[in-house]
Amino acid sequence: MTWTIHHVNLPAHDVRESAAFYSAIFGMRETPFQRPETGGNFRSDPAALAAFEQDGPAGRDLGINNGLHIVKPVPRFAEANGLQHNPTIGGHVAITVPDLDLVMRRLDDAGIQYSDAGRYAMLGFRQIYLYDPSMNLLEINQRVTP
Questions:
Q1: Which CATH superfamily is domain 4-143 in?
Q2: What's the predicted TM-score (pTM) here?
């Protein structure tokens, strides 16, 4: 199975201060975060979320919202969105795979719990969240037709 790193999500108590840091120090350009209309309690408030898409051909190959996400931690985010895992606390790495159903079957076979978030946060992607054996939160996603 082919996979790619889609984005890294970093928590920040002051999203705007962190966004200014990444812009000033690394020359990253903030881009609008695209989400589905049915984004539930997912917030796209600039004080709560900043997104920096990866430049160049590699970034275009990954689809929208790739690169770096900076989010304000929301303690009750998982509960409000019907998830077992909270992607706003502690950060996470997102891995894009071509067949999310295959990954979910493998997780089921291994008895590993995951939160099936569906298409709730990023336009054109299905997502699940799980912990690896070291308790690092992972997002696994697949590009789908919007």
A1: 2,3-Dihydroxybiphenyl 1,2-Dioxygenase, domain 1 (3.10.180.10)
A2: 0.79
